[in-house]
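Quick one - first record:
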Amino acid sequence: MTVNALGIYEKALPQDLSWEEKFNLVHQLGFNFLEFSIDESDERLARLDWSKKQREDFRNAMWKTNSRINTMMLSGHRRFPLGSSDPDVRKKSLEMMQKAIDLAVDLGIRNIQLAGYDVYYEKKTVESREYFVENLNKCVEMAAKKLVMLSIETMDDPFINSLAKISHYKEMIPSPWLQGYPDLGNITAWPENNVSEDLEENLSSVAAIHLKDTLAVTPTFKGQFKEVPFGKGCVDFEGCLRLLTRLNYSGSYTIEMWTGKNNNAIDEIKNAKKYFDDLFNKVGIEQEQNQQFSATH
């Protein structure tokens, strides 16, 4: 039996709610925390430049509702990648990283998830990989100064699609402030990965885990890495969770969904929560006790 926190990705929630309403909804749905998103959209990238007052208001909403943010998902580097051939883009990517670290400190976020891409929209080259490693090292130095964890996500891209590959970069950049954030769906979708061995051999590098289903990559199909209903894809969730329980994994899990723009978003989240509640009970995972203070307390 292990005790683990279970969170929900911000983009799963209805988009028209205030932060206080979002935090209260997270509690009402039975989750322990919210995962905060800074993606490549102008709207969410603007969060990196929040004023002192905006940061204070956000913190106050968290405190008022007895909430926390475990991880900032910094996927904005997809638009401004660390490995870009354009020096201005690389400069922008490092500026984003520093702003993200400073924002994490101000908001009490301890972990920043990095997308494991050298480049996304550009052509991949040996040089793009070199720029990525060079700038990842700079990012880790920034994070270490503020005691903020950076964790690389296993991706929908062969550049970094396994914990074994993350461990390789950790060998080049040895730091306790650089870890891995495996996505069980992304690891499973790549046929070259042995999911059990990847988790077993690299568990010491795991800061947190994403729960997401996928459709596998084949010689004639590029795979599907988003919006696959839980239980309809290729992920053996029961097997993976049973393995992680045997290994005494005590970190957090986050359900990754993109239902926020759907009219039935809350129902879809409830269905996903029940799906994993049943699996947790089956394999011997106890969810962290959910402590809620309503806005009136």
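second record:
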Amino acid sequence: MFKHILLPVDGSSTASLAVTKALSMAKAFGSKVTALYVLDPYPFASAGPDFAFGQAQYLSAVNTEAEQALKEVANAFAAEGVTVDTVTVDAYAVWKGIIDTSDEVGADVIVMGSHGRRGVEKLMLGSVAQRVVSHAHNSVLIVHHGAGGKAE
């Protein structure tokens, strides 16, 4: 059914739920999987406490974070005997990096977690998942925390 799954990750617990879902789908359908971490190389155009230190320190930290998140995905897939390609991309907006990568690799579904932000937090931070769903040229499966922290 799905030949190529794009799996955007950010190291969060909701991304971990998406990893589990994508792994199950890959096993069921024999799908190719590309795990993606989108780096924002332009943090000083944004606002927030995470950008209180210099550009070089930021880039080092975010690259380390990306490597760790993708390593965890690769290990999870390897433990199940499933191959996954990992890639990092730079994008001025995470949602745009996801959409562009999906188009570039020819994914027919994007499987991603959503943090479920609401109210003012959603207004201020936006919703990557909402923008991906709005702009994607393919199917998108959004994985949420359900009751008890399990994927719905």
